[in-house]
Fold:
Amino acid sequence: MTKICTSLEQSKKLIELGINMITADMFWANDILVATSYITNNDNETLIPAYKDAIPAWSLSALLGLMPKLYEFENDPDDGGCQPNLCKGWDNNQWHIVYRSSIYITKWYDDPIDAAFEMVCWLKENEKI
Structure:
């Protein structure tokens, strides 16, 4: 079955890593996926879910939106930067994301959301986003 957003566990991991909840475009409410419905408080920064105890969730589009459009590698001054590529294997029907093979490639996954989730985690853990 194709996923449409991060799982509850993946969503909690993104929050734990400090991914801004405003970037989520869905949320989990009592283990049910709901289209986003957020309101902001007076400081216009903190998001308050319309449902109590809601957990934000990210679609593939939202995850890709978190990735830098162009990434320049510190240890390669001749590198003009490169863009993230979402790749589908021609022989295994699986997905991965790569900025450049010598730097980081996600594992192969059956669903592109899982590959995007791994890349976002790696970027955040390595202070690239």
